[in-house]
Design brief:
Helices cover 34% and strands 24% of the residues. By secondary structure, it is of the alpha/beta class. The strands form four sheets. Strands 1-5-4-2-3-6 form a six-stranded mixed β-sheet, with helices on both faces.
C-alpha cells in the first residue's frame, strides 16, 4: 500500500525516486492538464523531475509552480484536471513524498488512490508525437489574491509569522502584509533546512512567545513545511491547542455543522453538530463534500469548504489574524469547554498486525472506545512506524485511566504479535 493518511510519504531514497515517474504516468491517464508544485526540501527538484517525466511521457501538460504551499497547488487545480504536490508535509527533511488533488482541492479518494496503484504496475506511455509538455508559472499569485479577497485585516495588527523555512514563506507573510498587517517574519526563507522541527507543536515553538512580547505582537501564526497546517498564539502569547482552535473557527464562522476526526476533543460537540472521520485531512475533506460547513483536525489542518477542500495554512493564518483584530481571542478561548487529552505511542513496525488483533478493520482508522467519562483511540500512524494512543477524560484522573487502558491493550498486542 503506497498511500498513507496523507499521500505517499517515504524517506528520500531510490525507491521513492524510482516511483515518481510511475505516479506521474498514472495520474496522466485521465488528467491531461496538471498543476505541480514542491515544498522547499532539498530533494524537491529531482523528485519533481521524476513526476514531470512520467506526466509528459503519458501525454499531460504540466504547469510547474516550483516552491509553493500545498494549498496553492490545490486551489490552482480548479483550473486544470489534477494537482500534484511534492512534499512530506511536516516530516523531517530526509523525507519527501507525493500528494494528489482533485479539481475541488480535495485529495484523491481511496478509490482513486487504489486505481493509481494499479496503473503503476502497467504504465501507459503516449506515442512520440503525443508527448506532453511542461511550462513554469507563478502559482502563488492566484492563491494570494483568493485569500486577500476573503479576509479583512486592519493595519494596526502586528503579527509574528513562522513558516519553518518551508513553502509557506512564499505566501503567508505576503498575504498578511498586503492586507495591512505589520509582519515580524522568522524562518520564512524557504531554504528547505528547517531551523525548527516542521510540525507546529508547542514544544517546537518555544521561541515565539518571547518574540511576541519583545515586539508587542497581537498574535502569531505558524505553518509546517508545506503550509497545509496552521497553528497560532493568542493575544496573551499563549499557544492555542488544536481543539480550541477548531472551536474558535467554528464559532467565528457560525458553523453549526463541523467535521472533525476521531481524535478530536468531545468539547466540540457542545457547540456544534459533529461528524467524525478517521484521522487524516483527506477524510475530513471528503466528508465535507456532502455535509458540514467547516472541518479540521487538531493537528492543525483546517478546511473551509467555501474556500477550498484542501487544508489551507496561509488562509487559516489570515483568518485567525482577522479574528484577532475583532475579538479578544484569549477571553474567547477561556470561555470554551476544555477536557484533558493525553497522548502516548509505542514504536513498532507491526501496526497493521497489532490493530488487526485489536479488532480494527483499518489500522490507520483505529479503534475508539468510549464510556461515560471519556474515550481512548488506538491507531497506527499513517506516516511513521508507531501505534498511537489518544485519550480524553472529563477529569485528569479519568483521562489517565483511559490512556492506561489503551496503552496496556497496545503493549499486550505487541507481545502477542512478536
Amino acid at each position: 500500500m503506497l498511500f498513507g493518511s496523507s499521500g505517499i510519504r517515504q524517506n528520500f531514497a531510490q525507491p521513492l525516486l524510482s516511483l515518481s515517474p510511475l505516479v506521474g504516468s498514472a495520474v496522466a491517464v485521465d488528467a491531461k492538464k496538471v498543476i505541480l508544485g514542491t515544498d522547499s526540501r532539498t530533494s524537491r527538484n529531482i523528485l519533481a523531475e521524476g513526476v514531470i517525466s512520467g506526466l509528459i511521457a503519458s501525454g499531460a501538460e504540466v504547469i510547474f509552480g516550483e516552491i509553493c504551499p500545498t494549498p496553492t497547488v490545490a486551489v490552482n487545480a480548479s483550473n486544470a484536471d489534477a494537482g500534484v504536490m511534492i512534499t512530506a508535509s511536516h516530516n523531517p527533511e530526509n523525507y519527501n513524498g507525493i500528494k494528489l488533488f482533485r479539481t475541488d482541492g480535495s485529495s484523491y479518494t481511496l478509490a482513486q488512490q487504489a486505481e493509481i496503484e494499479k496503473r503503476i504496475e502497467q504504465p501507459k506511455l503516449a506515442e512520440w508525437n503525443k508527448l506532453g509538455s511542461c511550462v513554469k508559472s507563478d502559482l502563488t499569485a492566484y492563491h494570494k489574491k483568493l485569500i486577500e479577497s476573503r479576509v479583512d485585516i486592519p493595519e494596526k495588527m502586528t503579527v509574528v509569522v513562522d513558516c519553518a523555512n518551508g513553502a509557506g514563506g512564499r505566501v503567508t507573510p505576503f498575504v498578511l502584509e498586503s492586507n495591512g498587517a505589520k509582519v515580524i517574519p522568522i524562518n520564512c526563507d524557504p531554504s528547505g533546512k528547517f531551523a525548527r522541527p516542521s510540525e507546529p507543536l508547542e514544544k517546537n515553538l518555544l521561541h515565539v512567545q518571547s518574540l511576541m512580547k519583545k515586539v508587542d505582537a497581537d498574535c502569531a501564526v505558524v505553518n509546517d513545511g508545506d503550509a497545509d497546517r496552521m497553528m497560532c498564539f493568542d493575544n496573551r502569547g499563549r499557544y492555542v491547542d488544536g481543539d480550541r482552535l477548531l472551536m474558535l473557527f467554528a464559532k467565528y464562522l457560525g458553523a453549526d455543522k463541523v467535521v472533525t476526526t476521531v481524535d478530536a476533543s468531545m468539547a466540540i460537540e457542545e457547540i456544534a453538530e459533529v461528524h467524525r472521520t478517521p484521522v487524516g485531512d483527506s477524510f475530513v475533506s471528503e466528508e465535507l463534500i456532502s455535509w458540514g460547513k467547516f472541518g479540521g483536525e487538531p493537528s492543525g489542518s483546517w478546511v473551509f469548504p467555501k474556500h477550498s477542500l484542501c487544508p489551507d495554512g496561509p488562509y487559516a493564518a489570515a483568518l485567525f489574524t482577522e479574528i484577532s483584530s475583532e475579538w479578544n481571542v484569549a477571553e474567547e478561548l477561556d470561555k470554551m469547554p476544555r477536557y484533558t487529552i493525553l497522548r502516548d505511542a509505542v514504536a513498532t513496525a507491526k501496526g497493521k498486525e497489532i490493530l488487526s488483533a485489536l479488532g480494527a478493520e483499518n489500522s490507520t482508522d483505529g479503534v475508539r472506545i468510549e464510556n461515560e467519562n471519556g474515550w481512548y483511540l488506538i491507531r497506527a500512524s499513517g506516516t511513521e512506524p508507531k501505534v498511537r494512543c489518544t485519550a480524553e477524560g472529563k477529569t485528569l484522573e479519568s483521562a489517565k485511566h483511559m490512556l492506561n487502558i489503551g496503552m496496556s491493550a497496545i503493549k499486550k498486542a505487541v507481545s502477542e504479535t512478536k
